[in-house]
Amino acid sequence: MRGNTLRLRLTRSEVDQIGEGEAVTEATQFPGGLTLQYSLVPGEIRNAELATSPEGQAIRVEVPAEMATEWATSQTQVGFSGETPFAVGPLEILIEKDFTCITPREGEEELDTFPNPNAVNG
After folding, report:
1. Is residue 25 part of a domain?
2. In the prediction, which pLDDT does 81 show?
3. Has residue 30 been placed in a domain?
4. What is the pLDDT of residue 113?
5. CB-count exposure of residue 83 (10 Å: 0-12, 13-18, 19+)
6. Fewest C-beta in 10 Å: which of 41, 70, 84, 101?
7. Could you give the number of structural domains in the chain?
8. Taking the chain, what is the end-to-end CA distance rounded to the nearest angstrom?
9. E-state strands within the chain
10. 54 domain residue, yes or no
11. Cα separation of 78 and 73, whole Å?
12. pLDDT tens per residue, range 71-89
């Protein structure tokens, strides 16, 4: 998250779910018991839509199912909407595949990531 931009990085399994027309839901736990939950849902719509809970603790992003399937099965398309995020009001959303880091980071779990296309094979 940065300013009014939300970037969702999905693992291989989550991308497969989206490609099969299934929703993906994830949650982040904060100290004090607060939870921020997001759902990415393929639907029968023309443009991305955003809904939030009245308390601001849940975000539901619905995207066109056809576009989601094309992205999920593409070997070359990284971002769900290319370089232009979805604009849903003042918030921009970028949905992309999660790649393995080129430089490993301590504590970073990369078990279900996509191979990084910029990595040099030795």
Report:
1. yes
2. 57
3. yes
4. 78
5. exposed
6. 84
7. 1
8. 34
9. 5-10, 24-29, 35-43, 49-52, 58-64, 86-88, 91-97
10. yes
11. 11
12. 888 888 887 754 455 666 6
